[in-house]
Design goal:
mainly alpha; Ferritin; 5 helices; about 80% helix; binds fe (ii) ion
Amino acid sequence: MQLSKEMAAAINDQIKAEFDSAYIYMAMEAYFKDAGFDGMAHWMHKQCKEEIEHAERFIDYLYDRGARFIVPDVAKPKDSYESPLDAFKAAYAHEQYVTSRIYKLVDMAMAEKDYASLSMLKWFVDEQVEEEDNASSIVAKLERLGTHHLFLIDKELGER
Ligand SMILES: [Fe+2]
Ligand SMILES: [Fe+2]
């Protein structure tokens, strides 16, 4: 069965969102580097790479279904934050936003009875649980330990 035009367009849109995510985390990496938090920068570097992998997973899926991938424009991300907590809060909010996007794709696949897309999207539903958990537990840690322990948290995140 051919992928619907609507689903192909929605997946292309999601590929843009994944590259936007990669750029957001790349900008956070640059912010942390500049602020002297090498561990947090390292964490963001890995996060950025994961987002590119997400984009690639969607791109491969389009190819597998004989659909066209259109290389998207990437939005310029915000490049400065008030504090590490501010940056991780933004990361968490962003992941929640991405989850809502994935759910919309699932809704669409269900409406179209596109079982292949549903199956592919299941991986992303699970991945978003992990993504939100990762970001929210760092936010919680930063809130709990506060500014006095920033360097300890930085060291821990450097081990990702
Ligand atoms: Fe992603
Ligand atoms: Fe993500």
